[in-house]
Specification:
The complex is a heterodimer of chains A (458) and B (207). In chain A, 18% of the residues lie in helices and 51% in strands. By secondary structure, chain A is an alpha+beta fold. Chain A has one domain. In chain A, strand 7 and strand 8 form a beta hairpin. Chain B is flat and about 85 Å long.
Chain lengths: 458, 207
């Protein structure tokens, strides 16, 4: 026991060292991946990502005989460091990001072919502050051209709210309806932002519609009447389902296995990883953003094709200590239009992410001992874990982009997590180039991010 | 070291649960208000004033609160007759972008204080090489084709579209007084230097 604990601690220290070394090697040449927050169609992703994260947190937790569950979640992120140069040549920097979410879930057994019908009602909100230096160039012969420096930072704050209703019948399909509101408030006189009409810069609303059937087809549509931005996505998880069927004993045919499946793709992935089974998925996603010319900052159409390949496996070790590995490999090939000149760009991107969870169980069941010694109790009432995630994101230009515009960005997240009675969850972490953000093409590249999570699930 | 009770000690564990639940609840409640608390110090680079843009007919109409800087030329001397530094409003620069609210700006208009533009100014500085004072005449009148308009905290200009973003910059004329001393640290006099400088950038506005 003693030697195992020591070995685990040594491994942990080595990983800490590795992550700092990895952080030093991050790509300073990052140039073109950060999404512009004004791109309202994709700005929805911030709150959408939160909604998906909370759904995944709840999925599979409702007992087969039904019942009611609740998920309460708060998180905050604090950014520091230097602003990044976005793909549109705009320097910008997040100051902070707060996320809050409440999700209610009901389970109704014995419906739809003796399946469990799950109903999720979620309220999600994201608030984040943006700081962007703005260059206001002056004519050469302007009286103040030599003395005036108007490159300044300005701040706006964004509020994204999402109300969603999700119906899930495991294995059969799911339907999701959501309503999103995006608001932008400008900081004014005293530099603060008040959420009132006088500070409101822009407000837009949109509907989100998703349905998924038998893992065969996933359709997602967003409609934004205010900014006249429509988008749709079509994807399939059928390859992953087929791989799982091949890995099984194949007692029934593949279509029969699809019909007999009682899990949604998300729960299938979660349970497969939880059981230590390999998870393979290949999703082809076709999407298009359409913007009416008068309401668009971009061109009228932006079709994208994305292939996502994921292979993951978790190694669960029993005993006094545990080490868990999650590995995800993503290959993204997409075609997209640069917004300010409409040039068609093609990218091939390889993303590798692996996560390691470390923990030690000891007879000591003291909360103070947890903080002092980092020991996790064995009683099951309080779990404590450390986690370390490392991600590398490589973007290899294959066509229009010049080779020097490709990028490789590596990052890590390290933190601690405590779970109380399988209901309360508290997490503190620090990341530089958060691997999750790298994969999602969101901001926070090149800077450190402190994050806390507080959650309650029942 | 405080021992956490074993699972058989239900009473103490229950109390501990209640206590911990209270702590976590307080934490959650506190955190919920943090985003507002954060405003107090997390917007260090926020715009100093707001810009209101509306469409009037086919043109964009901009207005903003007037700067508190003096429009009249302040007195050059204080009550004791000594030269003093001061700042006054030179004018407003209006920038427009058809790209995004954050880049692609160009100067669209100058709204300038006539009392500065029409007057002549001169710096009074010490040349340590020659050991003499010298004066440099200055003019703050624009000479390019854009020209300038009378000073006001409103502007009506470009044809209205949905993809135009505006920002307004406050520019001040600053009179800087600095004491000049020789090698023996003896006071020779005061140099007077006039400069133009930015005194605030508005948030972005769009019709």
């Amino acid at each position: 026991m003693r030697s195992g604990k020591l070995t685990t601690r040594i491994c942990f220290l080595v990983l800490v060292l590795c992550c700092f070394l990895a952080g030093n090697g991050r790509g300073a040449e990052y140039v073109h991946h950060a999404q512009d927050l004004l791109d309202a169609g994709r700005r929805t992703d911030s709150v959408d990502a939160l909604a998906l994260d909370r759904y995944l947190s709840m999925a599979g937790r409702i007992p087969a005989d039904g019942g009611l569950g609740v998920d309460f979640f708060l998180s905050g992120r604090f950014f520091y460091g230097f602003p990044v140069l976005s793909d549109y040549g705009v320097m910008r920097s997040d100051l902070f990001r707060f996320q809050g979410s409440v999700m209610l879930a009901w389970g109704f057994p014995g419906l739809l072919g003796n399946r469990l019908l799950e109903v999720y009602l979620g309220f999600h909100g994201v608030r984040y502050g943006l700081s962007t230096p703005v260059n206001l160039p002056l004519p050469e012969d302007d009286p103040v051209s030599t003395d005036l420096d108007v490159s300044d930072y300005v701040s706006d704050q964004f509020y994204d709210d999402l109300i969603e209703l999700r119906l899930v019948s495991g294995g059969l399909g799911s339907l999701r309806l959501g309503w999103v509101q995006n608001e932008v408030y400008a900081a004014t006189l005293d530099g603060r932002v008040e959420r009132d009409e006088s500070h409101l810069v822009a407000r837009s609303e949109r509907w989100v519609i998703e349905f998924e059937a038998l893992s065969l087809l996933r359709f997602r549509y967003r409609m934004d009447a205010a900014t006249r931005i429509d988008s749709w996505q079509v994807s399939t998880d059928i390859v992953g389902a087929f791989a799982l069927w091949l890995a099984s004993n194949q007692a029934t045919s593949f279509p029969g296995a699809l019909l007999e499946n009682r899990n949604s793709p998300e729960v299938s992935r979660k349970s497969a990883l939880g059981q230590g089974l390999p998870w393979i998925s290949l999703a082809l996603r076709a999407e298009n953003y359409f913007r009416d010319a008068s309401g668009s900052l971009r061109g009228s159409n932006e079709p994208n094709l994305v292939w996502e390949f994921e292979a993951a496996k978790r190694f669960n070790l029993s005993g006094g200590a545990w080490v868990q590995f999650d590995t995800t490999v993503g290959i993204f090939s997409r075609s997209w239009a640069r917004w300010h000149d409409g040039n068609r760009l093609r990218e091939l991107t390889l993303g590798v992410e692996f996560m390691i969870d470390l923990g030690v169980a000891t007879p000591e069941d003291s909360l103070i001992a947890l903080f002092i010694n980092g020991h996790a109790p064995e009683s099951g009432s309080i779990h404590m874990g450390y986690f370390f995630r490392y991600g590398s994101f490589t973007d290899a230009a294959i066509a229009v982009l010049a080779p020097d515009e490709g990028m490789t960005v590596s990052g890590y997240r390290i933190g601690m997590r405590m779970m109380f009675w399988n209901a309360f969850e508290f997490e503190l972490s620090y990341a530089e180039n958060d691997p999750a953000d790298l994969k999602r093409f969101v901001e926070s590249v090149g800077r450190g991010v402190f994050t806390f999570h507080l959650g309650y699930r029942y | 070291m405080t021992k956490f009770p074993r699972t058989t000690d239900f009473g103490r564990q229950s109390m501990f649960r209640v206590l911990l639940t209270c702590v976590l609840t307080l934490l959650l409640a506190g955190v919920a208000g943090c985003s507002y608390v954060l405003d107090a110090f997390a917007n260090p680079d926020a715009p100093v004033f707001q810009l209101f843009v509306t469409s009037e007919g086919s043109l964009d109409r901009l207005r903003w609160d007037a700067s508190s800087l003096s429009r009249a030329v302040p007195a050059d001397e204080d009550v004791l007759g000594r030269d003093r530094s001061w700042e006054m409003l030179y004018g407003y620069y209006v920038f427009v972008s058809t790209n995004t609210p954050y880049d692609g700006y160009r100067l669209a208009a100058r709204l300038l204080n006539q009392s500065i533009v029409s007057n002549s100014w001169q710096n009074h500085e010490w040349n340590s090489l020659t050991g003499k004072w010298f004066d440099t005449p200055l003019s703050f009148a624009p000479v390019d084709g854009l020209g300038h308009l009378p000073l006001t905290n409103a502007w009506t200009g470009l044809p209205s579209t949905r993809t135009q973003y505006y920002r307004v910059v406050i520019i001040a004329l600053k009179r800087n007084i600095s004491e000049v001393r020789n090698d023996k640290d003896e006071r020779i006099g005061d140099s007077i230097v006039y400069t133009l400088g930015e005194m605030g950038v508005s948030g972005w506005g769009a019709p």
